[in-house]
Amino acid sequence: MHPHSYKFVQPEQGLFTVVKVDEEWRYQKIMVEFQDDIPHGGVGIVETMVQKLGTMLGLESSSSPDRAVVVIDFLSPVGEYMTSEDLIGILTRNLSHVTNLNLHLGGFMGDILARERARILEPGPAMNVLCRRLRQAMPKLDWVDLW
User: Which residues on adjacent β-strands are paired with residue 30?
Assistant: First the structure.
């Protein structure tokens, strides 16, 4: 995922697998923590990182019907300034091509929800509201939760 600094999290626990799709090797399960120092307000940098990750994931394929499992987190405190709308837009533009996506969002998502909780007008817990909005924007999304 050059030029961005990242580390694969817990590959020894089987949460890092690749599959061959149309003669290319793609990630099927990946846990990644982006480690770049992202300046405050660097939503564009976050999008570039997720975009690069999205190009490395397998697409819908009859040879790979399993769920794609993706865990994303950031070392930088992006949850302090990023909004749920920013995140939904980034994920939709860059990961909506993946069928049966099982998405786990790291601590930054908790920061976003904690900051936005008071402004959410829809009924229900903040995470449920976010999940509902993500599923509307990404019909191929199978599951989303905090990691």
Answer: 70
Asked whether 105 and 131 are in contact (CB, 8 A), the reply is: no
- Joined together, the tokens standing for residue 56 give 């490395």
Region of 129 on the Ramachandran plot (φ > 0 left; ψ -120 to 50 alpha; else beta):
alpha
Domain spans in the chain, listed from the N-terminal domain onward: 6-146
Read off the pLDDT of residues 88-126 as tens digits, 9 standing for 90 and up: 999 999 998 888 888 889 889 989 988 887 776 666 778
SS3 of residue 79 by DSSP: helix
The pair of structure tokens assigned to 44 is: 């564009």
11 dihedral zone (left: phi>0; alpha: psi -120 to 50; beta): alpha
